[in-house]
Design goal:
By secondary structure, the protein is an alpha+beta fold. Strands 1, 2, 3, 4, 5, 6, 7 and 8 form an eight-stranded antiparallel β-sheet that branches. A hairpin with a 2-residue loop joins strand 3 and strand 4.
Length: 186
């Protein structure tokens, strides 16, 4: 990552950190204070990532095709407007080849009808913030190597507490609305 030393043990990253630390001291800051400044500028990001072990690979296809797409996607083939208490701002389905942000709804990323992958950006319906100030982005996908359904969730908010709440809440919402672990034996 850094040209100082080509290593796998983080020596070059440590050298860069020491250089940053020295610079911050000259500015009268410590690393924590600088990090807080960055949070105030960029917002707080938190994650809630995990997976469900599926009884077999067909279960993942059933969840994506019969629950997510069949029950939630409008007949015009676009995408649903809500998931639980969240308004969907962006929907990309790389299995069927749909991207709501593209002019022709065709994704720029590789489409693979044999895999399952949906990415969404959502905001809470009761959110008073701009969608760039507070949002959650997640990807749900089937594993290509093992019987797992993987979920990657990242949220952004003004505070770390709010960001973590949003990430955890989307996990619970997806669990209840889409994945239904008891029904599908996950």
């Amino acid at each position: 990552m850094f040209p100082t030393v080509h290593d796998k043990d983080g020596i070059s990253a440590f050298i860069v950190f020491l250089q940053l630390y020295d610079r911050l001291l000259k500015e009268g800051l410590n690393p924590y204070e600088k990090l807080e400044q960055l949070y105030n500028i960029c917002g707080n990001f938190k994650q809630c990532n995990g997976y469900y072990i599926t009884p077999n690979s067909e279960t993942t296809s059933t969840i994506f095709n019969d629950v997510i797409r069949k029950k939630n996607v409008p007949k015009d083939g676009s995408y649903p407007s809500h998931i639980g208490n969240y308004k969907i701002i962006y929907w990309r389905d790389l299995t069927i080849g749909y991207d709501s942000t593209m002019k022709d709804n065709k994704p720029e990323l590789y489409v693979d009808s044999s895999s399952q992958m949906i990415t969404c950006k959502v905001i809470r319906e009761d959110s008073k913030d701009n969608e760039d100030d507070e949002f959650v982005r997640f990807t749900a996908r089937g594993s290509g190597t093992e019987p797992k359904l993987k979920v990657y969730i990242e949220s952004k908010a003004d505070t770390a507490t709010r960001a973590q709440f949003l990430a955890d809440d989307v996990w619970s919402t997806l669990c209840n609305e889409w994945f239904q672990p008891d029904m599908y034996h996950l």
